[in-house]
Amino acid sequence: MPHDITRAGDEVKIEAGLLVKRISTARQSPGITTLYMGPEALLEKEASIASIDFHAAQPDEDPRRNLSSTGNAPVITQTNVEARGSDGLSVSGDNVDRQPLERVTWRPIAGLDALLRDGNFGEIHITIVVGDRGEKRVGISIPITKPAELAGVSFETFHEIYENHPVIRKWHVIKNDGDHWIKINNLLIEPITVGENHRHRVNLTPDERGAASSIIAFEDATRQEGIMLCSEVPSALRSMASTGSMGYNEAFFEWVLGPGESFETDPVFIYGYRGTVTRTCSSTSVPLDRVVEGPFKTFMEEIIGIRCVPDRMPVPLWCTWSNFQAAIDDAIIRDQACIASRAGFRGFQIDAGWSNSEDPADWTSGGREPHPGKFPDFQATCKVVRDLGMRLGLWTSCFRNRKSPDLRDMPAGTSIPIVRRGECFGMSFASEWRHYYAKDVISMHDVLGATYFKQDLTNIKFGDIAAGHDSRTRKESYLRGIRGFFEAQDIIHEKAPDACTLLSHELYWGTPGTPCDIAAVKHSWSFHIPPNDYSGAFPRRERIARKETWLKLNRWQLLAGCFNARRRFFAHRGLPLYCIEYYGAATINKDGSLVPRIQDRQVCSWLMGIPSVYAGDLSSLTEENIQHYKKRFDMVAALQEKHGIYKHFQFSGVPAPTDTGWHWWGKLNPEGCGIVIVLRGFLGSPSKRINVPWVPAGKNYKVVALFSGRVLGTFTSDELREGKVRLSLPRLSQEMLEISIA
Q1: With the CA atoms of 297, 302, 305 and 307 taken in that order, what torsion angle do they form, in degrees rounded to the nearest 10?
Q2: What is the Cα Rg of the chain in Å?
Q3: How far is CA 217 from CA 41, 154, 221, 440, 531, in A?
Q4: How far apart are the first and last CA of the chain?
Q5: In whole angstroms, what is the distance from residue 389 CA to residue 385 CA?
Q6: For a designed S-S bond to 472, which of 143, 256, 296, 556 qualifies (C-beta 3.0 to 4.6 A apart)?
Q7: pLDDT of res. 546
């Protein structure tokens, strides 16, 4: 199908496989857009190229008020609280409601639509170029000529297409080459309204906790064709309307442009798909699911750029947090690391509590200096972990206390409003401190040998308008803060290419915070999704006594944690699931609650993505638990080495996650080799036909049930697709089927 960008008369035509977009460049209708799939219009009506409101500063000057930590700056106080069995924050203090702190007022000038409609622009310039990777891009530049406050301002829109991908990607640049201070807001990058024939919506990342889904499919009623609307705008700043419009959340976005400055939006893109709906022996296979698990994932990896390299992740990963929290020291780390190594863990993360603090129980600081009382020789402690054959992970945050080198070297690095949490101050990624932060992480990598970094805690969402920092308004600082954090990630990965960075939902916005999105996985290796799940890990913050009452209750908690993990992984299926961390599989045995069958369910459930992360007092494990984890983790490592299972996830044409009946999914490479993970819930028939619709045609495969050690036979591709494999399982049991070329 054609992939080209052409110009004919007063129109630019963009062809990207199934999709065709037409943009008017006529004087009487500049930027008017239509979108088609074949001959059918996908939009309810013609759309504008963008929607932007312009404002003039009064007085006409830099709007920053000279706020500093030594003046009368407002203070926000955070306190850790329990929130529905997970982690939350109680927040109080001045300006929690995000009131503006700048000293200017803003007078509305006009919207882009009105400026173009009224002819307040000069000659339109169009450029079409081909990039190094074969991508083709068109740029349309429209200079604004009046009113006087906008003289010298220009609007540029860019569209890009990629050979063999039915995608049109789009972003804008607003330049201020004039003499006045202006502000833009209410910015919609793609202000479209999808037509009534394609209004069946499917969220492919969650829409929750103040952040819209970053990937939403709009399908026709038959589910045979549709478009995925995808936004690279980060976190809660993203707007995804029910009509299909994509842009910035008005509550959290504005941008100030002084003379000579410009603003580039984050991209959005539209991905088209079409196919047949087919009935399988267990479910229905729809084109959307097949595209998401195949060509769309390839597009995300090859074109958008996914930071994570799954075979370099330090998994299975164990974390100290659940039952230790800040009460960690050298002896505890040595003890837990020894058990973790014997249990087959490949990564060992020392969570919050290792950094220096005035109060040993205050774990908020994420500085690079260890607590001298807990860790007299932290380099030696870290070496113990590495010498046991595990990769070392360390926790860090965007908070620092008065003992931190950051506050000695960069006392102006704190954000304003001042954010207090325990004895610590929130630091600003919208300042030069982001470079100091990156150096801190690189130092931990170089000096302590850490290669995995969990980055945590909430500060960006409260804004920053400190003197000398980047932001001109508090609302502008939200995007500047996130972009500053992303810049720090890019620096870390450039200087320490083997470092795996984890971004927590708390740092990305709140506690609990926003789900993972496209922007996050472009810059960080992994994303710790909300909420923090302590199922089976109670009592939290305490060491586990082996003898416990309520044995059955704890078993159900452990099983519930497994189902929660599968549901949360599946809710993010539009993203490569090897980027997702779900906290956490509880490594806790209360008087026999953690039986091998539940350990197997943990291993299977977390393999919807990758085995990250496990947590809980390892001293509670029996020798049987330790050896069973090792046996399973060694098996998983061998499968990853043999088939590359971490990178793959197939779910089309089979039942969705459930804990009542049966469901399964694949982790098969392009040759059809890998594993199929099968789980039975607490109901359902004792046996089930297991169809494997993802194997390529014309091959013969050997199928082995790895947990039971049974060879199930040799099957053709068609037989696997048709469900000729039949499996019997007890209730709440599971099996892992290895599929390999016969």
Answers
A1: 80
A2: 27
A3: 16, 33, 12, 41, 25
A4: 36
A5: 7
A6: 256
A7: 56
Residue 112 corresponds to which tokens in the numbers above? 């882009």
86-94 long-range Cβ contacts below 8 angstroms, 24+ apart: 86/512, 86/530, 86/531, 86/532, 86/533, 86/534, 87/506, 87/511, 87/512, 87/531, 87/532, 88/511, 88/512, 89/458, 89/510, 89/511, 93/417, 93/420, 94/417
- Number of residues that this document lists for the chain: 742
The closest of 34, 44, 41, 51 to 117, measured between CA atoms, is: 51
User: 495 with 446: CB under 8 angstroms?
Assistant: no
* Candidates 1.10.1020.10, 3.30.1490.190, 2.70.98.60, 3.40.50.360; CATH matching 3-58+105-274: 2.70.98.60
Residue (of 598, 512, 515) closest to 554 by Cα position: 598
How many other CB atoms sit within 10 Å of the CB of residue 681? 18
Burial (Cβ within 10 Å: 0-12, 13-18, ≥19) of residue 711: exposed
CB-neighbour burial class of residue 360 (10 A; exposed 0-12, middle 13-18, buried 19+): middle
**Local structure of 12: helix, strand or coil:** strand
The string of pLDDT tens digits covering residues 255-276 is 999 999 999 999 999 999 999 9
What is the predicted pLDDT for the residue at 66?
Answer: 52
Return phi, psi of residue 165, to 5°.
-125, 125
- The full set of domain ranges for the chain reads 3-58+105-274, 310-644, 662-741
The topology under which CATH files domain 310-644 is TIM Barrel (3.20.20)
* pLDDT at residue 541, rounded to an integer: 74
Q: Among 478, 16, 54, which Cα is nearest to 238's? A: 478
- Give the whole-angstrom CA distance, residue 269 versus residue 171: 9
CATH number of 662-741: 2.60.40
Residues (pLDDT < 70) of the chain are: 65-71, 96-100, 545-551
Q: What was the pLDDT predicted at 74?
A: 86
DSSP state at residue 414:
B
Token look-up 């000293």 returns 103
pTM of the full structure = 0.97
Q: pLDDT digit string (tens) for 414-433?
A: 999 999 999 999 999 999 99
d(CA 125, CA 175): 15
Q: In this structure, what DSSP letter does residue 570 have?
A: H
Give φ, ψ of 440 to 5 degrees. Answer: -60, -50
DSSP-H helix ranges across 497-550: 505-508, 518-523
Show Cβ contacts of residue 558 under 8 Å, excluding neighbours closer than 6 positions: 535, 536, 586, 588, 593, 594, 598, 601, 602
Are 595 and 536 in contact by the 8 Å Cβ rule? The answer is: no
- Residue 538, pLDDT score: 80
CA-to-CA distance for 644 and 636, rounded, in angstroms? Answer: 10
Q: Do the Cβ atoms of 230 and 214 come closer than 8 Å?
A: yes
Q: Which residues of 452-476 are buried (b: 16+ CB within 10 A; e: fewer)?
A: bbbbbbbbbbbbbbbeebbbbbbbb
Contact 689, 662 (CB under 8 A): no
Q: How far apart are CA 137 and CA 126, in angstroms?
A: 10
